[in-house]
Write a structure and sequence with these properties.
Length: 186
Amino acid sequence: MTRDEAWRLVCEWTQSEALRRHMLGVEAAMRWYARKLGEDEETWAVTGLLHDFDYERHPNAPDHPLKGAEVLRQKGCPESIVRAILGHAHWGGVPRDTPMARTLFAVDELVGFVFACAYVQPTKRVADVKPASVKKKLKDKAFARAVSRDDIRQGMEELGIDPDEHIANVIAALTEAAPALGLAGT
């Protein structure tokens, strides 16, 4: 599946601009990590872009992402992408046994949290978000309360990366893509 095909599917299934922006943010983080790890950027980016495309129609577990996986398979999406998307949900029934699947899980919730951190910056610039402030805000349960801190922690553990480094990587990825995400850039 090409990036253009993936974006058309996202737009067909998702009306919420905030959810589209989240998927674009996860796409940016996946592309950044693929480049860092020497992986296929387009495959990783498409995986990030598609990971929540079915969420508006099927917001409840286990429907999301199981119903979306059926649609992706019908459209001929590679099984590696489908499995990574299934693995990003605890109830997907698929282990996160590839670098792409582990990375998707590790960036998903953190992207949303970094967005929230950028929105409360005086400048509204994602480039001004610092890993230390993200870590501090993670301890504040009232801040961005819908974001699963357990998933963020577990994702970093599964990825085997230092929390400061991972947070800095996601900030760097979102900074690169800031204009397309509706965030203030550098």
